[in-house]
């Protein structure tokens, strides 16, 4: 892991710390990433001829994969061993992926208000995330807790987008679609409920955490539970008749056996 921290991370960062050379540098970087998200969005429109939701989900997938990889790299390379001391100053690498995430949430909040039609829970989730990330970057504190929190928020996002793409491209209720869907449900509910509760506890009992951060964490925690309830309700409704759905999907993997079965039933 020393190779990652000594060779990979410096390639992604400017040669000098942002918070030392120029206080406006993180916000300039946020603006640049914000423009990049929109550039990709319109490039998919004019080059790939994709619909607005398709383009937006492509960007969401890119952001989810990048954030998950960056936060996982930070957690492994810093070797903090679950030290959630939220008063540790942010590293340059943390400023880097915080800028990516904050710019994405600003972009996506604008998109869902102008073009998309998302439930109120998503709007509240984005607003709380923007406020929380802005406060963390402004105060220059958060330590490993920032990486753990963002990893938990974005780890399940790529699976959600993959589920949508599989359904869009004709794999709805196929075995691969069902596996991705069930995996997303399990990881989303577990991380948001168990992981989110543990992180909220560490934040709320920490004596030096700003009251604004505590309130913002509570806001995201409440919204996360609203989303968890929605996910559970959806899967409960869809998979109420779980056995017939799965049996039909599994049989589709073995078309030869299915043809024999159909031939036998017709002959009888």
Bin the helical content: over 70%
**What is the mean predicted local confidence, pLDDT?**
80
What's the shape? globular
Show unreliable segments.
1-23, 253-268
Main beta-sheet annotation:
none
Tell me the total number of β-strands. 0
Q: Nearest-angstrom radius of gyration?
A: 22 Å
Structural class, from helix and strand content? mainly alpha
What count of structural domains?
1
Order of helices and strands: HHHHHHHHHHHH
The percentage of residues in β strands lies in under 5%
Number of helices: 12
The first-to-last residue Cα distance is 65 Å
Features:
single chain, 268 residues, mainly alpha, globular, disordered N terminus
List the helices and strands and how they pair.
Blueprint: H1 2-12, H2 18-21, H3 25-46, H4 52-78, H5 92-114, H6 120-139, H7 144-154, H8 157-168, H9 175-205, H10 211-238, H11 242-251, H12 255-267
